[in-house]
TrEMBL record:
Source taxonomy: Bacteria, Pseudomonadati, Pseudomonadota, Alphaproteobacteria, Hyphomicrobiales
Name of the protein described by the UniProt record: AlgX/AlgJ SGNH hydrolase-like domain-containing protein
Annotated keywords: Alginate biosynthesis, Membrane, Periplasm, Signal, Transferase, Transmembrane, Transmembrane helix
Pfam families cross-referenced by the UniProt entry: ALGX
Chaperone as UniProt keyword: no
Subcellular location: Periplasm
Record domain AlgX/AlgJ SGNH hydrolase-like: where: 106-222
Signal peptide start and end residues: none
Amino acid sequence: MTLLLSYRRWWAIIFVGLLVLPFFGHFMGDLPTPVRTRIAPEEQWWRNAAARLDPFINETFGFRGVMLAGNRAYLRVLKSSRSRPVIIGAEKQMFYTGDQNLEKALGTVVDSEGLARLFSVIDDLNARAKAVGAKLVVTSPPSGETVYFDLLPSWARAQKVKPTEYDLLQSAMAERGVTFADLRPALIASREGGRPYRRTDTHWNFRGSLIGLNEVLKAAGRPDLEVSEEKMLGPLEPEISGDLVRLNGDPPSKDDENYRVNDWNGWREHITPIDGIFATPDEHELFPPYAYETGHPGPRVLIYGDSFTQGYWPPFLVDRVSALAWTHHKYCDADLSAVERFKPDIIIYAPTQRSLACKAAPAP
């Protein structure tokens, strides 16, 4: 009878409530979650439920987003590095899962507020482009998960939804009348003629970057500037494994390949730096901007990009443009007034797919 004491009854009610709370979590609002690696129980799970059913249950519990967010916060406090943001798909293709890269490629995460800020920045850039008589082209180097979607594990492919952030960017540019270069079809189709992305790295290789650049030049109405793959690229050569191998905790090795760029170093010999376009970068700047005259005829080109364009496109453009400037997009905080100082003919805004949605605006 002592179990019926009032204070024990209240503890019993609280205990039962905690037990059933995950059930209601299946129907109530939750935080965004990483994609699930198990989307259904294995066949005949009842024969060995501990091995065949538990992994599915561990991926489908209520309030999964809240629990995983809490776990991430806990690991950050402890400075734990036990999680490795890499998965390996078919043909040993490696994929990056940090920065919600996989979720954004699959469309399971869409940052509407970040995209709205991106569109606002592009509106500002487009107005500046018109004021100086420049052609604005917006594009985005797609992630390896998009180009090699068929090589992702089956559990990831099964969770693909539309629209992705890339799709929404394309639609928004069409509504605004801003030229958009969708690089996905050309890069996916190019796989029949050779790899456009590295196997062990988040980045495209030189062939993929050249194909992407040509698509942008066509969109800009300058097919005359397109780069010949046969002329500029040599054969595939062994290359030290990329950033995904490092993130996976594996030792570096020459088990990846990239295309040789003909006359790779020669493009630097005749350029003349242009001062005053960008602020002097800090000595620790990871992506220092640059601007230079080439001594060749052609348009003046200004690029807002990231690691997919910083070092990849200059060798292909240097003898096709009269001046080239590059700066990081800084997640929508780049200095757009460089447009007025550089006075380009073509402006390319090219954040990679995982960086489309702008980061939160800095506090005033």
